């Protein structure tokens, strides 16, 4: 629902998705009113994502456009010395370490230690006279550098969504050594130009590198916000993940509170007061999602209105359903219902007649709905013959797990009450053997088949949004009265970041 995802610029980009607006946005006095979804990312997740910092910083250095540097100075004995550095490129960049802190002033502080980089280019210089009238010498140069980088990223609100401000950027130079034409020994020329150039070069590096980091940060943020928006959209069904209240940044976690409204064909569910409390979530896992009963019910209602709660079974699936047990009673009931027709020439349709009612409880999520079942026999050149039609009120308690990149829905308690029964094999509806068989079949095989199909459909939908590319570790889905908590650890697939940087920068 509120879906997190990337590194650190990376770290702050994920946090930006979670914190879709910043403290500069105005909200009412009740911090959790209208909150349908809450996301919490803890410090261990930020530390994990911080490991990806090197790739982002390297991309910023590689993509920085360093302008030509020119200058001149009067020197005793030499007269006026003019110089220019051009074709500046970065090679052999490495990072020793990176640290991240979450500050309660709505800022994320990143400290990157010992960024070593080799700058290469061309040095042109000449003496005495006007710059354009002299014959200048050209040398290839290398500059060895060692830099510490401090980023203080503030979260700002722009156009109803979060924007990172990484302009608070500092570079501290521990080393800046100039080599000419590969000569590693000190000399008067090298010393002369090192003294001239160092100050100017430091200013240019700071300006261009910090500007590029800010640009990369915004590009990543836009990408992740678009990814999150797409994740919570399925055709005409959209989940509104805009903020319901100010984000909360603590030393141990960052937390955001989202509306969680479901929009279907531009019609929205109503906001309701939230039962969320920060004490419901702990800090032992990397990532938490708190989902309200209202948001889950609204999603089920939208799926119903969109005609998605329909299942058709035929062939082997139909056979498995009606031949769940090999008894004489079962064989006679099936023979009478299908009138000797093969399963391949028949189809069973199951659909919800009313909006499902969703009620999370400690034992699982309780689902109530009026469901219809229709079995039709397909006759060549004729209209299908309806051999069986039932309407039944079903109450089922479902427990959900996520394993091996699949959502598994398991019914643990079910009840069925038949409201309407029409069967060509039992027109009077007085044959207890057929109704008893159908009742048992629905409880033992029908409900598990429907829940399994819904789980598979949701898995396919999530994987189409690329969830399966992430390494989700030991996820837990916990149901309580009025809400559901999903908590997990994760491993970041760094190849996703590399692919994104290669395509986008």
Automatic annotation (TrEMBL):
Catalytic activity: 1,2,3-tri-(9Z-octadecenoyl)-glycerol(in) = 1,2,3-tri-(9Z-octadecenoyl)-glycerol(out); cholesteryl (9Z,12Z)-octadecadienoate(in) = cholesteryl (9Z,12Z)-octadecadienoate(out); cholesteryl (9Z-octadecenoate)(in) = cholesteryl (9Z-octadecenoate)(out)
GO function terms (MF aspect): cholesterol binding; cholesterol transfer activity; phosphatidylcholine binding; phospholipid transporter activity; triglyceride binding
GO biological process: cholesterol homeostasis; cholesterol metabolic process; high-density lipoprotein particle remodeling; low-density lipoprotein particle remodeling; phosphatidylcholine metabolic process; phospholipid homeostasis; reverse cholesterol transport; triglyceride homeostasis
Domain Lipid-binding serum glycoprotein C-terminal: 281-488
CDD domains cross-referenced by the UniProt entry: BPI1 (cd00025)
Location in or out of the cell: Secreted
SUPFAM superfamilies, per database record: Bactericidal permeability-increasing protein, BPI
Keywords from the named record: Cholesterol metabolism, Disulfide bond, Glycoprotein, Lipid metabolism, Lipid transport, Secreted, Signal, Steroid metabolism, Sterol metabolism, Transport
Region forming the signal peptide: 1-24
Gene3D superfamilies: Bactericidal permeability-increasing protein, domain 1, Bactericidal permeability-increasing protein, domain 2
Main localization category: secreted
Stretches assigned to the Lipid-binding serum glycoprotein N-terminal domain: 40-267
Origin: domain of life: Eukaryota
Cysteines engaged in disulfide bonds, as pairs: 169-210
Keyword Secreted: yes
Recorded GO CC terms: high-density lipoprotein particle
Function, in words: Involved in the transfer of neutral lipids, including cholesteryl ester and triglyceride, among lipoprotein particles. Allows the net movement of cholesteryl ester from high density lipoproteins/HDL to triglyceride-rich very low density lipoproteins/VLDL, and the equimolar transport of triglyceride from VLDL to HDL. Regulates the reverse cholesterol transport, by which excess cholesterol is removed from peripheral tissues and returned to the liver for elimination.
Family as reported in the entry's similarity comment: Belongs to the BPI/LBP/Plunc superfamily. BPI/LBP family.
The protein's name in its UniProt record: Cholesteryl ester transfer protein
């Amino acid at each position: 629902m509120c879906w997190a995802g990337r590194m650190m610029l990376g770290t702050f980009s994920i946090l930006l998705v979670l914190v879709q607006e910043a403290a500069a946005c105005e909200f009412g006095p009740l911090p959790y009113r209208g909150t349908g979804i809450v996301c919490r990312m803890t410090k261990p997740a930020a530390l994990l994502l911080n490991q990806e910092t090197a790739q982002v910083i390297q991309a910023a250095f590689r993509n920085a456009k360093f302008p030509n540097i020119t200058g001149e100075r009067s020197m005793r004995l030499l007269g006026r010395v003019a110089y220019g550095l051009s074709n500046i490129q970065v090679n052999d960049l490495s990072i020793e370490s990176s640290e991240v802190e979450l500050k309660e002033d709505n800022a994320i502080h990143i400290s990157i230690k010992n960024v070593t980089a080799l700058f290469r280019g061309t040095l042109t210089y000449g003496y005495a006279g006007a710059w354009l009238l002299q014959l200048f010498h050209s040398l290839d140069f290398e500059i060895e550098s060692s830099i510490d980088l401090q980023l203080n990223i503030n979260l700002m609100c722009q156009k109803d969504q979060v924007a990172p401000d990484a302009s608070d950027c500092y570079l501290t130079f521990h080393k800046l050594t100039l080599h000419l034409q590969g000569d590693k020994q000190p000399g008067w020329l090298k010393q002369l130009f090192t003294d001239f150039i160092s100050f100017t070069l430091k200013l240019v590096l700071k300006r261009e590198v910090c500007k590029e980091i800010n640009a990369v940060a915004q590009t990543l943020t836009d990408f992740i916000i678009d990814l999150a928006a797409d994740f919570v959209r399925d055709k005409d069904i959209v989940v509104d993940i805009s903020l319901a209240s100010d984000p909360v940044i603590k030393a141990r976690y960052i937390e955001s509170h989202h509306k969680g409204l479901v929009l279907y064909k531009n019609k929205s569910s109503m906001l309701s007061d939230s039962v969320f409390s920060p004490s419901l979530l702990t800090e032992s896992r990397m990532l938490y999602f708190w989902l309200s009963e209202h948001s889950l019910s609204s999603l089920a209602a939208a799926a119903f209105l969109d005609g998605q709660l329909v299942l058709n079974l035929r062939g082997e699936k139909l056979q498995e359903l009606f031949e769940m047990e090999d008894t004489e009673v079962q064989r006679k009931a099936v023979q009478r219902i299908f009138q000797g027709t093969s399963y391949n020439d028949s189809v069973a349709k199951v659909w919800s007649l009313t909006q499902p009612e969703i009620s999370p409880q400690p034992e699982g999520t309780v689902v109530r709905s009026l469901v219809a079942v229709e079995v039709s026999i397909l006759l060549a050149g004729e209209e299908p013959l309806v051999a069986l039609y039932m309407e039944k009120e079903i109450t089922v308690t479902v427990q959900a797990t996520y394993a091996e990149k699949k959502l598994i829905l398991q019914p643990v308690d079910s009840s069925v009450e038949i409201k309407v029964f029409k069967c060509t094999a039992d027109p009077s509806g007085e044959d207890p053997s057929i109704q008893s068989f159908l009742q048992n079949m629905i409880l033992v095989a029908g409900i598990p088949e429907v829940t399994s199909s819904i789980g598979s459909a949701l898995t396919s939908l999530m994987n189409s949004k690329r969830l399966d590319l992430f390494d989700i570790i030991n996820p837990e889905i916990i149901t309580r009265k009025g809400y559901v908590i999903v908590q997990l650890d994760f491993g970041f697939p760094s190849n996703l970041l590399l692919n994104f940087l290669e395509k986008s920068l």
